[in-house]
Amino acid sequence: MTGSSAENMLIDKLEQFEKRYHEITERLSLPEVAADMAEYTKLLREHAAMEEIVSKFAAYKTALQEAEDIAEMKAEADEEMLLLIEAEAEELAERTARLEDELKLLLVPKDPDADRNVILEIRAGTGGEEAALFGVDLLRMYTRYAERHKLKLEYISTNFTELGGVKEVIVGVKGKGAFAKLKYESGVHRVQRVPETESGGRIHTSAATVAVMPEAEDVEIDINPNDLKIDVYRSGGHGGQGVNTTDSAVRITHLPTGVVVTCQDERSQLKNKDRALKVLRSRLYAMKKEEADREYSEARKTQVGSGDRSERIRTYNFPQGRVTDHRVGLTLYKLEAFLDGDMDEILEALARAEAESRMEEA
């Protein structure tokens, strides 16, 4: 098979993958490997991760061979046959180009945090009570999305307004690929709608901020107890409801960074402390990750965005029933479904944009 230098480089890379895949296949059949559960599991995971690439590469090679066969047929075809061959060649060229693009994306290195669990935070931004009520919409949206994708969502810390709006809510999201699915949600979410309390029917603009952080392991972020200021106090719900009579609420301040985490949902002080430390650890890991990204390259701030919490990423327009993601310029006129957790179309567009950007970097 002959082709351009770029095509040949791609084939060389894919042939290396294919060779490694077959090596692993052989090793998995060895009794000594099967007896070593850790080694066997590691190889099995690597084998599974390469399966799609190897399968698509086989289809790509078949398409390239078919293209060579068609070129030979064209040289010997009469006028009538030539029309049929050219139509087939056009369809084959499209299929080959599609396979090539899919293979390039598959070769892009995976985000090392992709399969981590997530700490997700929602906070009311500008707009007062309307922003807090929009925070409830976002919380429901992520809850429904988690249900659709078999992710487990659990509350870590909640702080609601008198009217039931969100001041701040922190949840954990667990499941395969949780961070890969939700990482694009970090940023400012803007809502445009007529508040129920607005008698004049004027459209108001308000916002809520979302932060999505990969959950950090204890061994990755070593927190010195001497760097922590821990305060305990009595927790209470809004309107005087659910007030505890013991000092079970916990506020932890990380002195070197000034990061503050509070947790008061559990009646046990120990449980609240454990949850607060989990959130603190993830915030510190996210800060460390952001710093590493900045040092790696300022150019990584592509059309997908930096994920900075101050960056406006999406607008939810209720009068027009539309949701617009500003990072990829995509507008969908299905706001109700989107807020019911049907977020895949936008999230997949963001994932493609990031993969294409990483592919260009590579």
Textual characterization of the structure:
With 362 residues, this protein is α+β, with helices and mostly antiparallel strands. Helices cover 48% and strands 20% of the residues. The protein has 9 helices and 11 strands. The strands form 2 sheets. It has an 8-stranded mixed β-sheet with strand order 2-3-1-5-4-9-10-11, sandwiched between helices. A hairpin with a 4-residue loop joins strand 10 and strand 11. Helix 3 packs antiparallel against helix 4. The radius of gyration is 26 Å and the shape is flat.
Features:
single chain; 362 residues; alpha+beta; eight-stranded mixed β-sheet; three-stranded antiparallel β-sheet; 9 helices; 11 strands; flat
Gap between N and C termini: 25 Å
Oligomer: single chain
Number of strands: 11
Give a short account of the largest sheet: 8 strands, mixed
Give the uncertain stretches in residue-range form: 238-244, 296-308
| Strand order within the widest beta sheet | 2-3-1-5-4-9-10-11
Overall mean confidence score, pLDDT: 85
Judging from the principal axes of the Cα atoms, what is the shape?
flat
Strand content: 15-25%
Number of helices: 9
Structural class: alpha+beta
Helix content: 40-55%
Which radius of gyration do the C-alpha atoms yield? 26 Å
Helix-strand sequence: HHHHEHEEHEEEEEHEEEHH
